[in-house]
Specification:
With 90 residues, the chain is mainly alpha-helical. It has a domain of 48 residues. The radius of gyration is 21 Å and the shape is elongated. The protein starts with 20 loop residues before the first helix and ends with a helix.
């Protein structure tokens, strides 16, 4: 697994994760074997498993389809989305 190097501008946020006992034991064993902290193991595993945000946005068909909606979003788009999508009353 590639070693993830935190970006100098990235800010770390504390997160609590509940793990089943067996998964926690395996994670600690893997971290010890690699001589890294559990936090490093979790960060690297998540980084390898999840696409970068920019990639995820590029692959999103809604965001990449200019035919769905063009122009600035109206202020009430979330509340009145049926009206904008289907020209129906919300």
């Amino acid at each position: 697994m590639p070693v993830m190097v935190p970006r100098p501008t990235s800010v770390m946020k504390r997160t609590t994760v509940m793990l089943p006992s067996d998964l926690r034991r395996r994670a600690h064993a893997a971290a010890r074997k690699r001589k890294v902290s559990l936090g490093t193991l979790v960060r690297e595993s998540l980084d390898a498993a999840l696409p970068a945000w920019e990639t995820a946005r590029e692959d999103d068909p809604l965001l990449s389809d200019g035919e769905v909606y063009q122009g600035p979003a109206p202020d009430d788009l979330a509340r009145a989305h049926d009206h904008y999508l289907y020209d129906d009353e919300a």
